Amino acid sequence: MNDRDRVERELKFSCSDLNTLRERLQDAEAERQSASLFEDNMIYDRRGELAEGGRLLRLRLVGKSACLTYKGPASFDGGLKIREERETEIANAEELRAILDHLGYTRTQRYQKYREEWRLGGVTICLDRTPIGEFVEFEGSAAAALARRLGLDPDAAERRSYLKIYEDYRQTHPQAPKDMVFT
């Protein structure tokens, strides 16, 4: 894998109608990669040192699978978020949590979503349903072109992460739980 493969290029949009977008993907002959799968995402940090540098360490659980992801600080080109991303599958999530704990990392945040993945022209399209709304993400070097093709303006893309979107949501919904989880 070369370094270019380790760079995430992402556009995210709030989406009021995933069904219409799904139809557009079918019309464009996109290939559905997975049905809607439940994801439980846990963010780990040690005394805030990762967050302070704009970095993230995430453990994602999907069914019996687990994946550890590091994301570096983000930069932006219009609405396109660009950042280093390194990811590996984990055979034993419980053992990884114990290792992180011994290294001084604690779970600081958690968010859940249902994700359905599609693929078209080298771009992965993720249809996400979260506790606070529906979103679509385009990931890949042609993300902006595909977003435009499907009727979305890359310059209007959401620049915030799900964690920041939820943090802002809690400002106007103080009764919301600490973590972005389905209740």
Give an overview of the whole structure.
This protein is α+β, with helices and mostly antiparallel strands and 183 residues long. The chain has one domain: Hypothetical Protein Pfu-838710-001 (Beta Barrel). It contains five helices and nine strands. The chain has an eight-stranded antiparallel β-barrel. The relative contact order is 0.21. The mean pLDDT is 95.
- CATH topology annotation: Hypothetical Protein Pfu-838710-001
Alpha carbon gap, first and last residue:
39 Å
Radius of gyration: 17 Å
Can you tell me the CATH class?
Mainly Beta
- Characterize the overall form: globular
CATH homologous superfamily placement: Hypothetical Protein Pfu-838710-001
Order of helices and strands: EHEHEEEEHEEEHH
- Tally of separate domains: 1
Q: What is the spatial order of strands in the main beta sheet?
A: 1-6-4-3-2-7-8-9
Strand runs, count: 9
Mean pLDDT: 95
Number of helices: 5
Q: What percentage of the residues does DSSP assign to strands (E)?
A: 35-45%
Please state the second-level CATH architecture.
Beta Barrel
The parts where pLDDT drops under 50 for at least 5 residues are none
Q: Major β-sheet, in short?
A: 8 strands, antiparallel, barrel
Instruction: Output the structural class.
Output: alpha+beta
How much helix, percentage-wise, in residues? 10-25%
Question: Which features would summarize this protein structure in a list?
Answer:
single chain, 183 residues, alpha+beta, Hypothetical Protein Pfu-838710-001, 23% helix, globular
Question: How are the elements arranged and paired?
Answer:
Blueprint: E1 7-14, H1 18-27, E2 31-45, H2 49-52, E3 56-62, E4 65-71, E5 75-77, E6 80-90, H3 93-102, E7 106-120, E8 123-130, E9 133-139, H4 143-149, H5 162-172
Antiparallel strand pairs: 1-6, 1-9, 2-3, 2-7, 3-4, 4-6, 5-6, 7-8, 8-9
